[in-house]
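Internal ticket #5521
Category: modeling
Description: The requester needs a full-assembly model to guide mutagenesis choices. All entity lines are attached below as received. Residue total reported by intake: 235.
Assigned to: D.W.
Attached entities:
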Amino acid sequence: AQKITQTQPGMFVQEKEAVTLDCTYDTSDPSYGLFWYKQPSSGEMIFLIYQGSYDQQNATEGRYSLNFQKARKSANLVISASQLGDSAMYFCAMREHNYGGSQGNLIFGKGTKLSVKP
Amino acid sequence: GAVVSQHPSWVICKSGTSVKIECRSLDFQATTMFWYRQFPKQSLMLMATSNEGSKATYEQGVEKDKFLINHASLTLSTLTVTSAHPEDSSFYICSASLAGDSYNEQFFGPGTRLTVL
């Protein structure tokens, strides 16, 4: 079973509008972290936002917010006031708990290609 | 902020040759570095986890004798693709985590695009 599911291969949004990118996850670990990354055509992975499984409030970073619904195991990314520069691939990722000081690896979804229309 | 560099950013090589890719954490120490591979229009797939001073842990299906990883210091990990073949052509990305950071954020390098002719 997939650990991270992104059901939208591609999305279009009008400039200045908000858009939600879906992400659901599957884990039995009570301690985990959820990440969103942006990958423009240049290939670099740009960290956007992080949500810890024990965080009570939804994470926000500027125009990015994470709609964390723990019971539903969803962690949707909301981008407000879309800009042309937001056009890119967006990956949701999860890291399960930290084993004895070593860093747990990230598991990525398949990504959503966002296109912002002028 | 934490910066990770990769060198080279792109490389073209002949089939059968070996290619070394470097991953450096420029302004922080990283006890753990990760190597990912990304084929066109696909997601990042973890190849191996590299811990400073110890052998790398490879994911299932990744040949450790083909993809040699060395993590000799807290700021440098190298990936050597030995006897490269066209099917090894891909985008290779490394990431590094801050030593002792409970937040566990991974900082990614800019990637290396490998083309094997």
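Resolution: model delivered.
Comment from assignee: The mean pLDDT of chain A is 91.
Ticket closed.
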